[in-house]
Amino acid sequence: DVVLTQSPLSLPVTLGQPASISCRSSQRLAYSDGNDHLNWFHQRPGQSPRRLIYKVSNRDSGVPDRFSGSGSGTDFTLKISRVEAEDVGIYYCMHGTHWYTFGQGTKLEIK
Amino acid sequence: QVQLVQSEVGVKKPGASVRVSCKASGYTFPSFGITWVRQAPGQGLEWMGWISAYTGNTNYAQRFQGRVTMTTETSTSTAYMDLRSLRSDDTGIYYCARVTCGSTSCYDLDYWGQGTLVTVSS
Known about the structure:
The complex is a heterodimer of chains A (111) and B (122).
Chain A: E1 4-7, E2 10-13, E3 19-25, E4 38-43, E5 50-54, E6 58-59, E7 67-72, E8 75-80, E9 89-96, E10 100-102, E11 106-110
Parallel strand pairs in A: 2-11
Antiparallel strand pairs in A: 1-3, 3-8, 4-5, 4-9, 5-6, 7-8, 9-10, 9-11
Chain B: E1 3-6, E2 10-12, E3 18-25, E4 33-39, E5 45-52, E6 58-60, E7 68-73, E8 78-83, E9 92-101, E10 106-107, E11 116-120
Parallel strand pairs in B: 2-11
Antiparallel strand pairs in B: 1-3, 3-8, 4-5, 4-9, 5-6, 7-8, 9-10, 9-11
């Protein structure tokens, strides 16, 4: 089975500072449509997850441009250029088409 | 706007079954699929399976095979997830989410329901 490993699992960040979360896949998946279906989600306490990024680097509508996604193959990254208070919560990477896998989650908190 | 509204369930006894519904609005229901994701208390997200609302094709995560059935009802734009033989470790929040479906698979969860808490307890 494919495993997605996120790091760090805990991420204390000072307001206004950048943050970066890594998502590493145990193996490269071949997608029949030629796209890497790697998504990033943000979940605030007590809320449903919200998608931020799809297909590695595409930002969803309404997502601030301080969020960016990058990567290829087995290594992917979510970056926040300047953390704001509303960014606290847990971030998950996920990939898949026929079957899906989630990373363990990274908890971002403000220092 | 796209909305997915889930049913409320409450407490179920071990060995019982549960049905969670997910009513979609704001888009053409058969043009997409629905996936189901579970979150145990204080834990991460666990994918359960998906169903194409157009073809009815399903794909279930191995650990739920034989215990879960996902269906859709196009006339009411509603998806259903049935889970049988409930155990205490099935306790959690169950989410539906919309997915894009190609000819053979579904991917890229975008909109999520509000979640349904299922508690399995005697």
